[in-house]
């Protein structure tokens, strides 16, 4: 990530604060910088660190460990965005943290659009002036209970360029850091003024191409934001060797494979990256994933009118799934129209016929309710309206697209 370099001071009271110390987060490490090398180091982010890691940071700055617990409470419970707003902490500690290049890691909302159905899509402005999308989807269940799903992005743009996806049309910029993923969930909670109950990695980008940061974000969402693993879904269009790697972590979260076609030839036309990952290979990896984790793989299938939505396609899909195991579930997604796309949304009759053909062959299927059509809710749509390159800073154009105030 292109972070601004910060100058560090050397005024910390204890020698231990001058040492470099490594903390482990999932499979990676985060370093508290040596102040002697500080001018060469990027700033460092508190969001995403665990209770234990924050306590150790407090100790390294000559504070008692309970100051680390206060940090944890301020970041994850009170959701304070700036270090100088940590009023429970001594002013000297706050100043020391900032001088050493630490920051919370929250980003401002650049644009928000609310649909008639209550869905809200956000554009979050990152430190390098890139924009990333996230969507909050409120759902009322039949029993009267409510859920709030955050659909989060894992990359700025996407390099895989699936033919029906608006994100791919906007190009690819970079991977998101774990705190930038977690921040999307906190932004949704702040906007809706309620807890997020479900998280789906189905926003911009391919999560498996950013697995390290996605797994770190997953840990934080589960352990620190307290969202159950079974309430988290990681979606992939399929990247060679990554499903097997993900299985080794034995997560209790759902793996959703974006299939979109029942055979290799058609899949290659819809998903160009499928050429490097044959359908039989990806189905074998999904079967092995189930055997390793005992978690059923969900299959996502976007219905494109006249392309992959016929009864014959449904029959072929059912045969494919039965060939590679039992207990599969298919999520059918009627195409969400995007400007300039060659694809069309299928008719309701076609969707129902597709579902009937699957269910008559003992394949369970559900049709995903389309949300936020009037809020550019298809992945990548809203971002493409605003950005294909970093925002310019300090000019009237950026100011004209500042945060939209939303009624609670």
From TrEMBL:
Its cofactor is [4Fe-4S] cluster. It comes from the Eukaryota. It holds the Pfam family RlmN_N. Keywords: 4Fe-4S, Cytoplasm, Disulfide bond, Iron, Iron-sulfur, Metal-binding, Methyltransferase, rRNA processing, S-adenosyl-L-methionine, Transferase, tRNA processing. It is found in: Cytoplasm. CDD domains: Radical_SAM. SUPFAM superfamilies: Radical SAM enzymes. The keyword Transmembrane does not apply. GO terms for biological process: rRNA base methylation; tRNA methylation. Residues 144-374 form the Radical SAM core domain. GO terms for molecular function: 4 iron, 4 sulfur cluster binding; metal ion binding; RNA methyltransferase activity. GO terms for cellular component: cytoplasm. The keyword Amino-acid biosynthesis does not apply. InterPro entries: Aldolase_TIM, Elp3/MiaA/NifB-like_rSAM, Methyltransferase_A, RlmN_N, RNA_MTrfase_RlmN, rRNA_lsu_MTrfase_RlmN/Cfr, rSAM, rSAM_sf. PANTHER family: 23S RRNA METHYLTRANSFERASE, RADICAL SAM CORE DOMAIN-CONTAINING PROTEIN. This is Radical SAM core domain-containing protein. It comes from Nicotiana attenuata.
